[in-house]
Write a structure and sequence with these properties.
49% helix; binds iron/sulfur cluster; 509 residues; binds ligand DLZ; mainly alpha; two-stranded antiparallel sheet; binds flavin-adenine dinucleotide
């Protein structure tokens, strides 16, 4: 009796636990392009194209390797439109009585599989360094969960950047060296780009037809759509960008969308690249003297530190995590998150424009521009969450939700962040060139043309005083606020209120 082996669109690894468990001679691999997955949020068309093209090529590679694959294309007649529906259809077709799956990266799909009228065995997803049990045992009994301590354990366990039990370079974290503002010139031309082949072209036409009217440009499409290409993109990054990755990790530039970032998350997350393989490639560059320790340590920390930690938080806190709203923020997401021409704030407009065209923004753009603005403006975190899950090609709930609900919006009340990531326009002015071309003046704190981030920053601090004033990391800012003349404080709060009212009316702010 054959079994069905489910492979989802972000599980495209030959080493996937479900495939490892399967018998090539008798089991049937099920892969399905389905309406439910392509529409549960209004995904960016580049994200849909990446996943469908990558799925089709992965299925072809499995077949070439001798597997039987039951593959449903989105436009197939008889496509039931859901993962559960396709599994049932294939079970009937092949007389299968059991499904073997690798645990999906979203609670939503986990419960779909749990509720199937067919036994489904969900195996652990072994494409991560830390299992759920490992993270739980680390987290147990700790008053606060700090990524840095978890990261050190991951360094010890993987042996990455370790020399005789001690951290390479004599310290665990070189972040202190990684806060350089935007450089004058960038000598990296960006991530490796791939010309669409026939399969990709077919998918692009399908996506244009079915999803062409939403937010996001499908062309030019340049993502890798198979593991071999992703590996070349990794080599390209290590050689040309990694050496300066650390220095400019927090910088932002109007005409250099990728700076020295890797743009590898989308490939790691769908299974083309293993996290440890990526880290080892970076470590090799350190050993051969091609990249400095601050760059390599910073990069490795993002992957075995932040990436693993975020997944741990998502699974530790359960399905309700995405609905948390500790700061009780209720305002609707402004329209300009979907249309950059609807705002005069250059930083926000440039990040939204880049997101629309590339389905990509780097970490500081996500955190300190669109994330920071949403938090300062008091936007409902559920709406912010849905926006991030939709617009980035690397977005799956297990990684997106803790970054948005936890790190960016402080909506979990500080499960792992010791303070909210808020800043006035000064931070953006220091780290980018956005303010040079803005209708607002970052130097103006109040009055005509004052930067909205400056106004909203103080309004946020004032609004949440009770919660944050005892936080030692924020005390200094409350002291500054209190030293201002009362009239000035009133002006700031009144102007912030006027700005938010105008924004919510739909004015072009
Ligand atoms: P690089 O800067 O080159 O970093 C290297 C790798 O480190 C990345 O490829 C990624 O795998 C990993 N990484 C770095 N930071 C994080 C982090 N905070 N959490 C998890 N992994 C990290 N990342 C996603 O993969 N999917 C998301 O949906 C996502 N949503 C985010 C939303 C917000 C509000 C914020 C602040 C961050 C989000 N991140 C998300 C984390 C981070 O911004 C992206 O991983 C990174 O920008 C991807 O670009 P890159 O590959 O060029 O990264
Ligand atoms: C994101 C996505 C999209 C757009 N389409 C599909 C699809 O058609 N078929 C599929 O198997 N997976 C798709 N995915 C990825 C799933 O949504 C993803 O596996 C879950 O969100 C869990 O991470
Ligand atoms: Fe953004 Fe303010 Fe700078 Fe304009 S002045 S780009 S709104 S930080």
């Amino acid at each position: 009796m054959s079994r069905l082996i489910l492979v989802l669109g972000d599980q495209l690894s030959p080493e996937l636990s479900a495939l490892k468990e399967a018998d090539k001679t008798s089991d049937v691999v099920v892969m399905a392009e389905v309406a439910d997955e392509t529409t549960y949020v209004p995904h960016h068309p580049k994200k849909i194209a990446l996943i469908l093209a990558a799925m089709r090529k992965f299925a072809a590679a499995l077949r070439a390797d001798g597997w039987t694959v039951a593959y449903s294309e989105l436009d197939d007649r008889g496509n039931s439109g859901s993962i559960a529906g396709e599994l049932l259809r294939r079970a009937e077709e092949h007389g299968a009585r059991e499904v073997v799956a690798t645990e999906p990266g979203e609670w939503r799909l986990i419960s779909v599989l749990e509720d199937m009228p067919l036994p489904v065995r969900q195996l652990p997803d072994t494409r991560f360094v830390a299992s759920h049990a490992r993270f739980e045992s680390w987290a147990e009994g700790r008053k606060s969960l700090r990524m840095e301590y978890f990261y050190r354990e991951m360094r010890r366990e993987t042996g990455l950047l370790m020399e005789e039990g001690e951290p390479a370079g004599g310290k665990w974290n070189f972040d202190h060296d990684n806060r350089e503002p935007a450089p004058e010139e960038i000598d990296f031309g960006g991530p490796m780009r791939f010309t669409p082949d026939e399969t990709v072209e077919e998918v692009l036409e399908l996506v244009e037809r079915r999803f062409g009217n939403g937010f996001g440009e499908v062309r030019p499409f340049w993502f890798a759509t198979e593991a071999g290409q992703a590996r070349r993109a990794l080599t390209h990054f290590v050689k040309h960008a990694l050496p300066r990755f650390g220095d400019y990790q927090d910088a932002m530039l109007d005409d250099a969308r990728f700076l020295y970032h890797s743009v590898l998350s989308l490939y790691i997350n769908i299974g083309f690249l293993e996290p440890l393989e990526v880290c080892r490639a970076a470590e090799d560059a350190l050993r051969s003297g091609d990249a400095p320790i601050n760059a390599v340590e910073g990069f490795v920390r993002q992957i075995i530190g932040w990436r693993e930690f975020m997944r741990g938080i998502y699974f530790l806190h359960g399905p309700d995590y995405v609905r948390r709203n500790a700061l009780n923020h209720q305002r609707k997401l402004p329209w300009f998150y979907w249309d950059e021409t609807a705002t005069r704030m250059n930083c926000v407009a440039r990040v939204v424009e880049q997101t629309r065209e590339e389905a990509y923004a780097h970490h500081i753009q996500r955190l300190m521009v669109t994330g920071n603005f949403a938090l300062l403006a008091g936007i409902d975190p559920a709406e912010v969450h849905e926006w991030y899950l939709s617009v980035y090609a690397d977005a799956y709930e297990w990684v997106e939700a803790p970054n948005v609900i936890g790190m960016s919006q402080f909506a979990d009340g500080g499960v792992f962040a010791s303070k909210p990531y808020v800043s006035s326009g000064n931070y953006i002015a220091r780290m980018s060139d956005y303010c040079d071309h803005c209708a607002y003046s970052v130097k103006r704190k109040t009055g005509e043309g004052a930067c909205p981030f400056n106004l909203l920053y103080w309004a946020f601090m004032d609004r949440h005083r009770e919660r944050f004033e005892k936080n030692p990391r924020m005390a200094q800012m409350y002291a500054t606020w209190d030293r201002m003349a009362e009239g000035r404080r009133e002006t700031i709060l009144a102007e912030a209120g006027q700005f938010l009212d105008a924004m919510s009316r739909g004015d072009r702010v």
